[in-house]
């Protein structure tokens, strides 16, 4: 990479770092390109060199951060095999662990869940974090289908409704915890939280 390209890439990353900081501090709507430029120590012209507008900055910020949901689901199924309850438990545990320990991901999800005002909730990039990718969604629903065939899915649930509740519960935990990560250690309570989730969706074996 040439020195000029390397400098341009550093400037771009500095702009995104500054956008993350200002979005977290004051929300997406209340942040202007002038705020981002001041925080990054660059001119607004430098921002326009890299990004068309604030929405493009927001897009790029979320693209930097990715939950590898497809990989988590596929690896879990490959490793654990044909026990759907164990697979679902492991997927939930790994997702909450990612929120606890991946700080860039944690900051991005905080912006999406707590710093995007109502008018911006329909931004297409938000689904990158708040929704399951189609592949992971299908795999999770298939696990619930297998649980149903085995007689382990709660009788009043369909695999599709179980998948929606599985996802909604985990998003709710993240929403609550990210309001104030100091309120409790999510990493310490992760297993108990996941156990509560699983007991709500699956029949428990007789002792």
Task: Please describe what this structure looks like.
This protein has 207 residues and is mostly helical. It is 71% helix and 0% strand. The model has no long low-confidence stretch (mean pLDDT 89). Helix 1 crosses helix 4, helix 9 crosses helix 10 and helix 10 packs antiparallel against helix 11. Pfam families: TetR_C_2, TetR_N. It comes from Vreelandella neptunia. Keywords: DNA-binding, Repressor, Transcription, Transcription regulation. InterPro entries: DNA-bd_HTH_TetR-type_CS, Homeodomain-like_sf, HTH-type_TetR-like_transc_reg, HTH_TetR, Tet_transcr_reg_TetR-rel_C_sf, Tscrpt_reg_MAATS_C. This is TetR family transcriptional regulator.
Summarize it:
This protein has 207 residues and is an all-alpha fold.
């Amino acid at each position: 990479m040439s020195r000029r390209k390397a400098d341009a890439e550093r400037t771009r990353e500095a702009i995104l770092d500054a956008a993350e900081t200002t979005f977290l501090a004051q929300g997406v709507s209340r942040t202007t390109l002038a705020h981002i430029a001041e925080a990054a120590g660059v001119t607004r012209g430098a921002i326009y060199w890299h990004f068309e507008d604030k929405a493009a900055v927001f897009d790029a910020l979320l693209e930097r951060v990715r939950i590898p949901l497809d990989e988590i689901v596929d690896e879990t199924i490959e490793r654990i095999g044909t026990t759907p309850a164990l697979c679902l438990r492991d997927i939930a545990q790994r997702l909450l662990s990612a929120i606890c320990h991946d700080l860039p991901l944690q900051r991005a999800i905080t912006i999406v869940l707590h710093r995007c005002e109502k008018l911006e909730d329909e931004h297409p990039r938000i689904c990158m974090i708040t929704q399951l990718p189609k592949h992971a969604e299908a795999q999770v629903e298939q696990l619930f289908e297998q649980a149903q065939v085995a007689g382990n899915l709660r009788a009043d649930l369909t695999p599709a409704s179980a998948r929606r509740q599985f996802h909604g519960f985990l998003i709710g935990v993240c929403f609550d915890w990210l309001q104030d990560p100091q309120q409790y250690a999510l990493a310490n309570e992760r297993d108990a939280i996941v156990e509560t989730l699983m007991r709500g969706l699956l029949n428990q074996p007789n002792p």
